[in-house]
Design brief:
It is a single chain. By secondary structure, the chain is mainly α. The chain has 2 domains: 101 residues, no CATH class; 129 residues, no CATH class. It is built from 11 helices and no strands. It is globular, with a radius of gyration of 18 Å. The protein starts with a helix and ends with a helix.
């Protein structure tokens, strides 16, 4: 799946950048080739709505821009944030294109599964963005105001989407609630989040609660708008 490949590429690039190019989880060239292979298998390019249509108007345009971004991974002239924002921008539109193509059904049991699947897709994407911002924090020791808000917004959205998935499908609820016992790493998510909040406050970020409140308002507005759009369909 293209979305998964781009999410993995974003994670690998972020890990490389935030370790100052000293560490690799996998070979970046192999990661890029994996994405390219999946891209070549995409024969029907989605019709994206909104955003930069010049960038997303064709697969070829997208491939050219993606290659330019890859070449700039080691370029100090571009900020780390700009590179990650581009990946986030693209994965968002790919995600929404996938979600919009998942057809609704009138049968209640199937409808619940489809809604849960949509929310799970969103949860994975939002957790991916949280991870990137977390890597940025642990790599540099701080987060700018905008990136901190981005961190909080997507953390809230991720858990909101995951909890909605649990509400619709009992099997998912049991599996998610068993994560903390089954996967030791799962417990670190909350711990890392607390560490980030505490360290930002220690750095003199006295407006941190206000920034979190701003993030929560952004989540509320965007969430209501998205749900209304899905209801209107």
């Amino acid at each position: 799946m293209l979305l998964t490949a781009l999410q993995l590429e974003r994670a690998e690039v972020a890990y490389f950048i935030f370790s100052n190019g000293t560490k690799l989880r996998t070979n970046l060239d192999d990661t890029f080739r994996r994405t390219d292979t999946i891209l070549e298998k995409v024969h029907s390019w989605p019709k994206f709505s909104g955003g930069n249509m010049q960038l997303l108007s064709s697969k070829l345009r997208f491939q050219i821009r993606l290659e330019d971004l890859r070449k700039s991974v080691n370029d100090a002239d571009d900020s780390v944030g700009e590179k990650m924002v581009w990946y986030n921008y693209i994965t968002f539109f790919v995600m929404e294109a996938i979600v919009s193509n998942i057809k609704d059904a009138t049968i209640s049991s199937v409808w619940k599964l489809l809604v849960a699947y949509k929310d799970m897709i969103r949860a994975v994407e939002y957790f991916g963005i949280v991870m990137v911002e977390g890597l940025s924090f642990f790599g540099s020791g701080s987060l700018s105001r905008d990136r901190f808000v981005n961190f909080v917004v997507h953390d809230i959205l991720a858990w909101k989407s995951l909890n909605q998935t649990k509400d619709f499908v009992a099997l998912v609820r049991r599996q998610v609630e068993g994560f903390s016992e089954k996967y030791e790493e799962f417990k670190n998510i909350t711990e890392w989040y607390v560490v980030c909040l505490v360290c930002c406050a220690r750095d003199g970020r006295r407006g941190i609660e206000g920034e979190r409140e701003e993030a929560e308002i952004l989540v509320l507005v965007s969430g209501c708008g998205r749900r209304q759009t899905e209801i209107d369909r």
